[in-house]
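Re-run with default settings, no changes from the original entry. Doing this only to confirm the output is reproducible before filing.
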Amino acid sequence: MNANTTHLTLEDIARQCAGTMPLPAASDGTSAAPGAVVFAEPWQAHAFAMTVQLHEKGLFTWPQWAAALTQAIRDAQARGDADDGHHYYLHWLNALEHMVIQHKLGTPDQIHDLEHAWEDAAARTPHGQPIALDAVL
């Protein structure tokens, strides 16, 4: 992300998507009002933003994304997911990883290595400080 896109609000993202992508709902399931908190954790917002950026770069269309997310949710349901919404962004992340692998932007091993690099970087970073990730790919 460049300096102009590191702190986008949902409204900023919606403008960049020209209204073609539905925004996530608020935690109570209603449409997100301006300023509403829709992500329980920062990683959820990051996964959302990465998806938007990859779409903007032409990696996939929104219908393709919807199909991938739907499949990730169905796969989780088949494994016994309670389908109560608590794992929605885990399904989102699984769909995103699938799209990255499917479009040969990364391998499962690279994603695994990156996940552990983030965990290590977060563990050594003092609370409140930006996480500095060493290059792993």
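The chain has five helices and no strands. Residues 3-105 form one domain.
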